[in-house]
């Protein structure tokens, strides 16, 4: 092992009684969940979550393929700056999933290329 | 004119909030404009209300300060002194010339130098299509910053996110990027991010920091020159370290991520130790399985609105004087848009800006004593962060780790080979020429993500790029902007 102890290294791990999820950590009591679809598959979303957060909760990390290489992409910056998270929502292409809030019944689709040839 | 002077604050983070409260408390009418659904900015990003968090502070530090800002804002909103526009993305701030021959030699502008006021142009909602315009006598830019990430093989795989992005998704939407995370890069943001992810139930397999602990020793004297600041900051660091220890997070200092692996999504990262020159120490590579990597190499300021207004920059930051004034009359700037230094510095600068604005709009010189404490904190924190910048550094030879087929410009999918060719064979020596030759930086994000990497590969210093607007603007909105109605009001609002 090459790792060295340093002022940054924790020394004494204790046994934590850790929460298992972010919802548990903040003792969330969300408003009732609803469903949206992602590429025709039903997923559950919580009100207040962005499309990206709803997809992450469902274990989905990519919802776009790039124009040139056809590579999958999802969230990168998380704050609306990078445009990697572009997705098609209710027929509208190029929506930033990290900004747009999920609404009941949203039809979310993987966006291919520039999203204009569906 | 018997109306109270009107200030538009762009950005409701720590800086914008502190400024809005200070100005509103002294009789200025404030419109606080932010693209987010709730005030707070990055540091105090709020969990969406509908998620019903009963203990939101579990994801935060310095919560009592937030409560003061939040409650102060509510009081001013209730009293009609502050209007808070949420979900408003400002894409351009327009400066009007003082109408000639109007009341008095100075023109009717509130600012003694005769500026004719400003219009902040915004787009409403996350879809950003509906235009809104806000008129004001003065403007404060408190737009904060965004994260810098330097490329490495595999950095475009889904599951690789910015460190701050992971934090933002967690605080805002109560979600994790995966079950097992590695937090990597360099900078003071990594510890709170790792602590946050671990507290929320992710297994944090490692915190990989490229800084050399010996650099702390080298800069100890500068850090100690501001004893009060250093003590507070070290206590903060110790608290994060304790949290990491509680969650058994292993920290690897003077290490770096060499590559991210996976097909279709992240499955593992390779990390390695660095030698004294900042190169990978051969034979130290090891693979850590993980489904998420939160990575960051520091922060960059958002300066588009300031640049479009013609404000002078100092390096990459908006240049300001002791009162947080830019060199454009009527325009102030505070917080990380003027230099990266964390939430407490942003608040100090915001307070000074708010007090200066209130005085200047009333044709007075602000009383320095009214912000003595904030000015002292500002001096200390600026020096402290300047020293930190020398300590937290990406590996000296980070460009050597970028393989030729690594995509550098994520939007236009420009590989490192194309940039190297532009530099080595076509003689490009600056970011602009590389952009023209390779399209790197021409995509949706306008070079915000690849700018530092392209500069590094071209062997030049990162430079602020000129973007006409802070946000992509629908053509219809552009065509109508600047149209005025009979009352001289610009478009909708
Ligand atoms: C993603 C991210 C996460 C971070 N998380 C942490 C953390 O957990 N802990 C920590 O110590 N530090 C964190 N930081 C560092 C953080 O930047 C500072 O701690 C602090 O928030 C800076 O305050 P500020 O007021 O200067 O800017 P910010 O807090 O960044 O506030 C700027 C505000 O301006 C708004 N804005 C920007 N441009 C526009 C526009 N054109 N139109 C409308 N609104 C606009 C933004 O929405 C934002 O609310 C994070 C930074 C980032 C980028
Ligand atoms: S993740 Fe960067 S814009 Fe959405």
Automatic annotation (TrEMBL), chain B:
Task: List all membrane-crossing ranges.
Answer: none
The FAD/NAD(P)-binding domain is annotated at 6-347
Q: Which controlled-vocabulary keywords does the entry list?
A: Oxidoreductase
Determine the domain of life of the protein's source: Bacteria
Tell me which Gene3D superfamilies the record gives: BFD-like [2Fe-2S]-binding domain (1.10.10.1100), FAD/NAD(P)-binding domain (3.50.50.60)
Residue span(s) of domain BFD-like [2Fe-2S]-binding: 407-456
Q: Which GO terms describe its molecular function?
A: oxidoreductase activity
Work out whether the entry's keyword set contains Oxidoreductase.
Answer: yes
What's the short name of a Pfam family annotated to this entry?
Fer2_BFD
Task: Quote the PANTHER family the UniProt record gives.
Answer: ANAEROBIC GLYCEROL-3-PHOSPHATE DEHYDROGENASE SUBUNIT B (PTHR42949:SF3)
Name the chain's protein. FAD-dependent oxidoreductase
Classification lineage? Bacteria, Bacillati, Actinomycetota, Actinomycetes, Kitasatosporales
